[in-house]
Amino acid sequence: MSVQPGWYVDPADTETRRYWDGEGWLGAPIPVDATPPDGPPPPEPEPPAPATPDAPPTSPGPVAPGWPPHQGPQPGPGPQPGYGPQPGYGPQPGHGPGWGPQAGPPGWGPQGGPPGWGPQGGPQGWAPPAGHPGWLGRPPEPRPHGLRLAGYGRRLVARLIDFGIVFALNVVVNGWFVWRWAQEWAPYWQEVFRRASRGDTSADGLPLPSEQANSLLVAILLIATALWLAYEVPTMASGGQTVGKRVMRIRAVPMAADQPLGVRRALSRWSTLGLPTLLWYCAGLGLVLQLVDALSPLFDHPLRQALHDKRAQTVVVEVPQHTDTAPSNDRNQPPGDTP
């Protein structure tokens, strides 16, 4: 999933922001608390035209994108009386036509940016997204809003805790319907096991459950889905955390800004994973869809988003030990963060 163009916090220096055009960084960084301009930064100045044989080059050479160009020496008042070429100065044998001294102080040469800069002009330690052409080595892990991404182990344990709570709610609310459904199927399975013990594999004359069994199954799935919805959506909308996420110290935040999810985003996130429960009626199809969703963070890079995260534009991050679990909502900063 590509991140929309906009101003985001630099992953290498969280005190600055830079403009992301959907493929790479543009322009120079600005302080994180400064109000970014509308749209992309102004274009970099065009490099001077290449030198011709009649005019020696005066450009200091290419510089890193976003780095102010080298100004070179300042013009003086002019040559002093009697000034002229020094002995031995000028084209030497073997030099091509038009050769002359380069602009700048003695020993100066075109610079390629400050020491330690990467091949794309980013600051030291910064790397473009995975697959960026010309970058060698693995890029560092992104830190949305300056927070570490939650590991898959934490997310799995948190989800298992939540499933345990929802299961306990179903035992209380849905228990009678499940018992009645099991009673409808009990004669069928008892006969199947009785025949299997005698080596009889025929299905003729098996006692089938009544039509009430199908109605009971639909009621069970509807109640289970409603309980899951009532458990997860309100808590995720207000704080980005369920009981399981609080225990594992992780929470879900929007990609655009570190703020509460809200009901609409929380409902969109839950429905991708929760609504397939109703499809358990269709030969377990819903369970397969939920399994794929649950495993999807293992194959998503670099933000480790599950399918429900992608739909709601959220990421799951760790909650630092030294801060409150409640998400911050800084109205003084414009929305946008690390892509």
UniProtKB/TrEMBL annotation:
TM helices/strands, residue ranges: 156-179, 213-231, 273-292
Topology in membrane: Multi-pass membrane protein
Biased composition (Pro residues): 37-90, 103-117
All copies of domain RDD, residue ranges: 150-312
Pfam families: RDD (PF06271)
InterPro entries in UniProt: Pra-immunoreactive, RDD
Major location (coarse): membrane
GO CC term (a single one): plasma membrane
Regions of compositional bias (Low complexity) in chain numbering: 125-135
Keyword presence, Transmembrane: yes
Polar residues composition-biased segments: 322-332
Swiss-Prot/TrEMBL keywords: Cell membrane, Membrane, Transmembrane, Transmembrane helix
Keyword 4Fe-4S tagged: no
Locations listed in the record: Cell membrane
Biased composition (Gly residues): 91-101
Region (Disordered): 19-142, 318-339
Protein name per UniProt: Transporter
Natural source organism: Micromonospora arida
